Amino acid sequence: MSEKLGLFLFSWILSWGFTAVKQLSITYDYIVNDGVVVVTDISNINSANNNDSLYSPDQQISNEDNLQTEEQSSSCDDEEFWSATSAKLIKGGDQIYLAFPNNPLKNKIVNLNLNFIPTTMSYRSFNTSFHMHGIKTIKVSVRDEFDTIDVNLIGGLASNPIESWDVQLQALGVNNKVCFTKNVLSLAPSSFSNYVNLESFYVPGVISPADENNFDINLFGKNEIANEMEYLDYFQNIQKLKSLNKYLPEPSEAGVSMLTKTVYLDEKAKLVSDSLWYRNILHGEVVIGLFGDVKKSELEVISKIIKLLHIVAPNLDIKYSDNAEEVNLPIHIVGCEELFSQKVNQCKDRAAGTFTPPNTYGTLERGKFGYIWVDANYTPEYRQHVVVHELGHALGLGHNLCYDSVMSYSDYAPEVPFFTVLDLMQLRVLYDSKLPKPLGEKYTIQTLDLDYEKYKEFDEGEKNVCEAKQAGWSDLVEFQRGIIEIDEIYEGKK
Ligand SMILES: [Zn+2]
């Protein structure tokens, strides 16, 4: 835990349409971008692992040494140099051959990147957000007059492929500042063979079969009847978990109060009002998928959260799918590299994770729950924390300043990879079966038969919500922490 102290979670919400209208009334951090309001919602990171940085310091130093000894006749943006530079596809399209009139270092080019930029990508649209995985940067040698680069790219979904890539040479001078860029090729998926469709991450045996959207019961490897019996067992286990909902602590005034507040980026120490009316919540059939640079530990976290939600939100039909086409709540795990930051979400030095709420004016049913992005350049432990934090947003949670919450903005809060008592108390309110959808606080209090005066005490700060932890949640926390098995919770309640 201590190594992670000093790291802060940082995420933001891109929001538009209806949500944007709501957010406009709040005086926080707005960046108006092509008429789209971008709300940055958490701040601060300082320790992305840049192990695979494109600009290794060693390389840089030796290049600069070299620069001083080479003749320095031309500059980086020298027209003659660039007009004589050529790029062509070879080996049936699977390699790009680059030729320069002289070695780029002679033109004070210290680093040279070949960037692959999907032309159909838009971070704002659910479907083309999958194209963020097609962004790639490959380092080109600056010491030679030619270089050969392998073309090896990830496309979009089979149903919505990347239509083409712009292939761009990007030259960086001393200080690693971009000094020239040039589009050298356009690539279509049909023009090379090392192209793969984006797929949802899967490792057998992690997700319970009945929590998989399209589990193939033949994988049990027995006869048909035995397989169906086993599957039925898993299915009944879900029903058992849902039946545990009635043993949970009741919805609380403190839970409602926490839901009516949040914390924004530029005022990290300040709790502010956040209406319950427009809360993003999950409903109906939710299908999660993990995409990109995923680790098994992230699938394990999802497996636990799904089980937990069977108990806390039994009306939710939430599953995981290894079929990308079925996923309606994708979690994209991609490293926040320079080009990615520039083209996708300006994550560099700003965000470790984001939740992008659905476009409520949109007609794309599949995108009705929005999507999550998590920076792959972190330790597995911290990534798990970010995954759970962003899922918290997808489920309807805002930020708080309590010590003990996965949604905390407090600098002192440990980055836990699970929903704590305070988080569970809020989920209990949001997903109570008496609430048809998020209501304002008064209606919520009324519908859940709570005491408005008690709520006011928390709301007005007479009582501290952070200290209002209910008893009765410890087994759900222990399950998430791997201390007890989910079956033990059921056995204990029978
Ligand atoms: Zn957040």
Shape: globular
CATH class descriptor name of the largest domain: Alpha Beta
Largest sheet: 8 strands, mixed
Return the domain count.
Answer: 2
Number of strands: 19
Verbal overview:
By secondary structure, the protein is α/β, with parallel strands linked by helices. The protein has two domains: 2-49 and 229-493, Collagenase (Catalytic Domain); 57-196, Immunoglobulin-like (Sandwich). The chain is built from 14 helices and 19 strands. It has helices spanning 17-23, 57-69, 79-83, 126-129, 224-243, 253-259, 296-312, 338-345, 380-395, 421-430, 441-447, 452-459, 474-480, 486-493; strands at residues 11-14, 30-33, 36-39, 86-90, 95-99, 111-118, 136-140, 146-150, 153-154, 165-172, 178-187, 195-196, 261-264, 267-273, 285-292, 317-320, 329-334, 353-356, 371-375. The strands form five sheets. An eight-stranded mixed beta sheet has the order 2-3-1-18-19-17-15-16, with helices on one face. The chain has a four-stranded antiparallel beta sheet with strand order 7-6-10-11, covered by helices on one side. The chain has a three-stranded antiparallel beta sheet with strand order 4-5-8, with no helix packed on it. A hairpin with a 2-residue loop joins β13 (261-264) and β14. It starts with 10 loop residues before the first strand and ends with a helix. 43% of the residues are buried. Zinc ion (ZN) binds at residues 11, 41-42, 389, 393, 399.
